[in-house]
Amino acid sequence: MAELSKVIHVRNVGHEISENDLLQLFQPFGIITKLVMLRAKNQALLQMQDVASAMNALQFYSNVQPTIRGRNVYVQFSSHQELTTMDQNSQGRGDEPNRILLVTIHHMLYPITVEVLHQVFSPHGFVEKIVTFQKSAGFQALIQYQLRQSAVAARTSLQGRNIYDGCCQLDIQFSNLDELQVNYNNDRSRDFTNPHLPSEQKGRSSQAGYGDVGVAYPQMANAAAIAAAFGGGLPPGISGTNDRCTVLVSNLNPDRIDEDKLFNLFSLYGNIVRIKLLHNKPDHALVQMGDGFQAELAVHFLKGAMLFGKRLEVNFSKHPNITQGADTHEYSNSNLNRFNRNAAKNYKYCCSPTKMIHLSTLPQDITEEEIVSHLEDHGAIVNTKLFEMNGKKQALVLFETEEQATEALVCKHASSLAGSIIRISFSQLQSIRETS
């Protein structure tokens, strides 16, 4: 038996076991002064206040098998008499506080992007840079805060927590790096202090690297934002496995439809690459979406929607994409595409057409009367409400039918109202409450 020591050596510490779990195992026996997780070895070292406390713990656990989260752990005296900060540093990364965190994600059932990591880590302080990469240990990220105390607070609060229910568990250590190098702003790396970085190397697709990250649905470049929006699952009826990006829309009203109106409707469900109206079938159009998941949302939520007196048919096209030509409208660089920013928020708002539309980016001095006169040609307006969110004017407008609301959205999204280009989406609220 090893020499008596106040340091306890714990083995078989699986990655699902957090520091907190270990503390709970030993706290009944006395004050714990230090804890070092040796993640690479699935071990931990834990220093009690005195040898007597350590002896009590080991005596107790020689009769009772200690288990954490259903896993047996094995305890013995450590060969160390004392844990020094040096032991921790010999891990290269460990408990020496630093403003850069090394995050490993276990049980990664959903892909994780920079966007999601930023949502998770930014409540604890200003995140300057994030870099993600795939290692043999799994998916990892380096997160650089402006201040060291933000990194310490984030680690204390988030260590061992799951990003989504039951999966994507965070294992957080301090990195020994001084500064992260970020060359591109995209789904895999971001410098929040320099928004002007290119998104990719010239000549390389921005999604090419997704294969390296080993995500669950390779065709879903926004998969992490999707998981964030839908609470880790997917909306009922959505498989998340479709890889066809092009949608065929038929039974359109050829006298009233055009590419921009289709863009306004389909851009609720994803970014639009290009749109083509079929001249030989004037009530048909092809819409190419940013990826298969966005196309699946559009088919799911728009099937059977009423527009301009016709019930839309929306199906996946047999064409993988639309060939660019004189008769196609290009939208891939349009700044009206909604999913370039706040993708998670936009996914969350995806729904079938409703009677209520939500207007944003309104001028500060707008009145309800101006909103009504801008929209009333599309149908009877039952109610409106103007309000402010984060200092910005927004409005809800309730029509009598879904079709009227859809027409208003299709004709007036991205139109100019009192000098501002307005944004319109469907609201899932059932009614406008009179409260402010």
UniProtKB/TrEMBL annotation:
Keyword hit for RNA-binding: yes
Keywords assigned by UniProt, alphabetized: Repeat, RNA-binding
PROSITE patterns: RRM
Composition-biased stretches (Basic and acidic residues): 188-203
Positions of region (Disordered): 188-208
CDD domains found in the cross-reference section: RRM1_PTBPH3 (cd12687), RRM3_PTBPH3 (cd12698), RRM4_PTBPH3 (cd12426)
Name of this chain's protein: RRM domain-containing protein
Originating species: Manihot esculenta
